[in-house]
Amino acid sequence: MKDDNFLRENNARHLWHPMAHPRDMQENPPKIITGAEGVKITDLDGNRVIDGVAGLWCVNLGYSNDAVKEAIARQLTDLPYYSGFGGCTNPMAIEASYAVRDFFAADGMARVFFTSGGSDSVETCLRLARQYHRLRGQPTRTKYLSLKRGYHGTHLGGASVNGNNRFRVGYEPLLPGCFQLPAPYLYRNPFDETDPARLAQLIVQMAEDEILFQGPETIAAFIMEPILGAGGVIVPPASFMPAMRTLCDKHGILMIADEVITGFGRTGHWSGSRHWGVKPDMMSTAKGISSAYFPVGAALMSDKVAEVFETAGADGAIFHGYTYSAHPVGAAAVVACLKETLRLDTAANAGPRGDQLFAGLQRLQDRHAIIGDVRGGHGLMAGIELVSDRTAKTPLDAAAIKRIHEATYQAGAMVRIALNNIVMSPPLVITEAEVDALLSALDAGLAAV
Which residue from 253, 244, 329 is spatially nearest to 294, judged by alpha carbons? Predict the structure, then answer.
């Protein structure tokens, strides 16, 4: 590895960073993370802090799981790569597909299509949803419904169903036929509704109105995150996802659960859908599937969807895939990660530690007037919405939020900015003492502003 001076001199000079302005990265060089252990990361300057975002919602097992690392190393020796195209497979791909299908069997999932990450998985679901309807003799079903403030990756399809204009306006025109419904967002919604059940009812009514306006025979799928992550950890009313499931069934629309963040124990259940008692038709997954030790994702299909493809004629062939679909090293990481996830029972830890984090954030809200809303209480994902005026709900300016972010880091924790929200999604193996330390660092960051 090059020396520290080389790294500092070349930081962001040749590399464009995701979700950032290239000039800003050059003028404000990003932190150079050089190591990690447990739930803590270390930077080039020697700062060692709690990773309150698990990399990017993904390092569920923390950074020190030797079982996953050893599985990857063994597979690199045995078979570093072979394609899943052309009638070929590999032993670990077979084992991984069984493990993933078994993990989500309670959600009604029956088939697995491996990808390289979450955006790939969403794209796969969107494409196969259209093909599913064509195979059933309904080729006009090409449109999609989604939620404002929802996030579904950065591919053209995912960006088109995204509900945040930051991911859209620079790349328009996107796919036609994508329509966003209001988010089930108690703190800010167009109805000024504060009753959860009533808000859910209003959005479901609006969804049905949109379905009837577009024509049910034109809509392929509705996609949603069981808890909206990048949009600010927006927790829907408990009745919302079940009501949308019923509405989709009524009009022959597929439900896609985007479980990229919420899958594998993040919500305190093994899937976000299970958290709400819903069985979707398709699921997109990634992140926790390998605890980010290898870039892997998967799209999952229910028996209902699988049967249509598997009983179809030639048109049932899936002309879609990725060079690294069912990569043997990634598959080995998946098998080892799921074994460790179940052995450690990370969902069981996510529940109480998430409750602890949520309660701590509520206490911080009492201490800091700039916290307008606290969201969480459903596993290890939580967010605070920052405002300059609680009554008017005026978003706090970006410069102040950046100061909070940096002060929190200097106090010992990495958190994430999402618009005027600070979101937290620490590793699912975090301890009670480490949650307290995360809250203490955030308290110091808030106090700095």
Answer: 329
380 neighbors 430 (Cβ within 8 angstroms): yes
What's the domain range around 408? 31-64+345-447
Number of independent structural domains in the chain: 2
Count Cα atoms within 13 angstroms, Cβ side, for 78. 14
Q: Which amino acid is at 44?
A: L
Residue 310's pLDDT band (boundaries 50, 70, 90)? very high
pLDDT per residue as tens digits for the range 20-48: 999 999 999 999 999 999 999 999 999 99
| DSSP code, position 318 | -
Domain boundary among 310, 343, 376: 343
Q: Is residue 9 part of a domain?
A: no
In DSSP terms, 179 is beta-bridged to: 145
Same domain, 114 and 198: yes
Q: Does residue 164 fall inside a structural domain?
A: yes
CB environment 218-238: b (16+ within 10 A), e (fewer): ebbbbbbbbbbbbbbbbbbbe
Pairing of strands 297-302, 282-285: antiparallel
**Cβ neighbours, 10 Å, residue 416:** 17
pTM of the model: 0.97
pLDDT in tens, 70-96: 999 999 999 999 999 999 999 999 999
| 165 contacts: CB under 8 Å, gap ≥ 6 | none
In a domain, 191, yes or no: yes
Residue 437 Cα to chain centre, angstroms = 25
